[in-house]
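Need a sequence for this fold. Nothing fancy.
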């Protein structure tokens, strides 16, 4: 639900690729183009998709399906996912990427370096769809399928693909076959992939930051190499949890006070729609440092973290506030990771520099 309305689900690029491959294989083996194809996704749901732009050449068939992401803000919404198929003598099903599909150039992803960026689940869906058609028409030879998305290379510039080492186009993604509207899962999966790529490259101390403010501060003020830094967005808890499953000894977590103040309240998803409490947290620690009721009221009335920080610094209690807040941040980080690795954490603002710096595990 959003704004009191039910949001519409969509289909992944993997489902579209499987549908296009199925349609093209039907055309290749029957010489008849289907108008609709049916694909069964991971949860057992059957989805019917319209087939467009069908072309029959001498030895190959081409079909396309339009990606409908539903109400999810997906950059691939509306693209045409094509499959070109032809017979081979190998007695196996081979799937590759063509125009607009990226190639993997860094280790750490679910696809090996040098291969088309078609993730394992959609790859399985594509091969299963082709295999079903081959069985239906009693065809025992091989099939080669090439998936393509015209314009995919340009669209990929709006994604994190290049950072993940996927060059030249989009990825064929999807684990369930269904796009959940406004889904957080896709972003969290991207964060996990970014972590995997960085760890596979041998980085010694991983830098994690919620966004560009942290990256810029790490580079410009701390002189750190942020080329391999991971942006975790608002998903601090999910990022920390995933790192606990990896062979990580230490990370450096750098973020602006506007977000990381919330960690002192145990808030591990820093999106304002989930929780705020910045002023409540700043006010309570100011009270611990001796601020009177009038000052607490002024802090509570602030609309920005920086406004509250200015009041705290004017009163001369900044050192005490940042000390107790740092201790609370360390406490909640420690509770979350349960000794899995060491976290060095830095909280800053552009105006004040580093406010809090600590370490915990």
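Here you go.
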């Amino acid at each position: 639900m959003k704004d009191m309305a039910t949001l519409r689900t969509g289909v992944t690029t993997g489902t579209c690729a499987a549908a296009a491959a199925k349609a093209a294989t039907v055309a290749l083996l029957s010489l008849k183009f289907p108008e609709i194809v049916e694909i069964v996704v991971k949860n057992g749901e059957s989805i019917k998709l319209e087939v467009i732009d069908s072309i029959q050449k001498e030895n190959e068939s081409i079909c396309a399906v339009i990606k409908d992401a539903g109400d999810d803000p997906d950059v691939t919404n509306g693209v045409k996912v094509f499959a070109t198929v032809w017979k081979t003598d190998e007695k196996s099903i081979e799937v590759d990427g063509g125009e607009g599909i990226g190639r993997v150039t860094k280790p750490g992803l679910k696809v090996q370096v040098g291969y088309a960026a078609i993730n394992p689940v959609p790859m399985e869906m594509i091969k299963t769809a082709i295999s079903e058609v081959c069985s239906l028409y009693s065809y025992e030879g091989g099939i080669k399928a090439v998936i393509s998305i015209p314009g995919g290379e340009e669209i990929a510039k709006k994604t994190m693909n290049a950072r993940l080492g996927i060059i030249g186009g989009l990825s064929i993604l999807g684990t369930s076959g269904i796009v959940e509207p406004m889904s957080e899962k896709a972003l969290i999966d991207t964060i996990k992939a970014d972590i995997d790529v960085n760890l596979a490259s041998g980085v010694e101390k991983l830098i994690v930051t919620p966004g560009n403010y942290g990256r810029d501060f790490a580079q410009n003020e701390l002189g750190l190499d942020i080329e391999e830094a991971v942006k975790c967005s608002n998903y601090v808890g999910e990022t920390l949890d995933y790192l606990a499953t990896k062979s990580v000894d230490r990370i450096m977590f750098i973020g602006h006070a506007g977000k990381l103040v919330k960690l002192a309240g145990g808030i591990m998803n820093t999106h304002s729609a989930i929780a705020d409490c910045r002023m409540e947290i700043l006010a309570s620690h100011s009270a611990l440092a001796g601020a009177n009721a009038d000052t607490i009221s002024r802090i509570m009335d602030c609309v920005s973290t920086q406004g509250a920080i200015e009041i705290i610094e004017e009163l001369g209690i900044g050192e005490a506030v940042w000390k107790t807040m740092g201790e609370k941040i360390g406490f909640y980080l420690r509770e979350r990771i349960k000794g899995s690795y060491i976290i060095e954490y830095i909280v800053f603002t552009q105006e004040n520099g580093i406010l809090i710096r600590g370490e915990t595990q």
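For context: The mean pLDDT is 90.
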